[in-house]
Amino acid sequence: MSGAENNEAHKWTFGIRALSNQIPRASLRTTLTYRLHPRFSLGVEYNPRADDVGLLANVVAITETEKRPSLIFGTSSDRIGTPSGRSIYATVSKNLSREVKLPVAGYAGVAYSSYEDRFLPLAGLTVNWAENLSTLVIFDGVKVHPTLTYVLGTRHVFTFLLAQGKNPGASYSVSF
C-alpha cells in the first residue's frame, strides 16, 4: 500500500488473480478501478466462480511525508478464504528506508470483516530489491500471504503469491 498520490496518466486499472486450492470466490478474482483523483479510486470486483460482485474504493486521506505516515481507508471483498462478505479497512503506511537504512516499507491497520463480524489487525512489510522487483508479506488478520512482484514499465504488474503461505497463485494488472 502506497501512501503517495498517484499522478500517473493512466486512470484505469484492470486486474486478474488466480489462486490454487481455494474456495470458489477466492480462486479467480477480477477488478476494474478508475482513479478519480490522485488520492481516490473507485471500482468493481467480480469473482466469477462465486458470481460475487462488490465495490472497491481506496482513499489516501493523509499522504506520506518524510516524517509522517500515510493514512488510507478502503473497502474490498473480505479476506482470502472467506466465501462471502466485505472488508472495510484503515491503514497507516510508511517508507522506512531512511530510518532503518534498508529498502523497506511497512503498513499496519485494522479491517472490519463482515463475514466474520469482527475487527482484524492488518500488517505488511515490503522489501524493494530493485526498482521493479519487490516482495511483500501480508498479514490479513488470520493468515500470512507472501508475494513477489515485478513491475514492467508504468503499466504492467506481475505478482506471484502463496495464499495462506502455501497455495500458489498469480496476478496481473494493467493500467491504461
**Alpha-beta classification:** mainly beta
Name the beta content range: over 45%
- Globular, elongated, flat, extended or rod-shaped: what is the shape? globular
Question: What are the low-pLDDT stretches, counting only 5+ consecutive residues below 50?
Answer: none
| Main beta sheet strand tally, sense and closure | 12 strands, antiparallel, barrel
The total count of helices amounts to 2
How many angstroms separate the termini?
Answer: 20 Å
How are the strands of the biggest sheet laid out side by side?
A: 1-2-3-4-5-6-7-8-9-10-11-12
Q: How many β-strands, per DSSP?
A: 12
State the helicity in percent bands. Answer: under 10%
* H and E order: EHEEEEEHEEEEEE
Query: What do the pLDDT scores average to?
Result: 95
Rg: 16 Å
Which structural traits does this protein have?
single chain; mainly beta; 176 residues; twelve-stranded antiparallel barrel
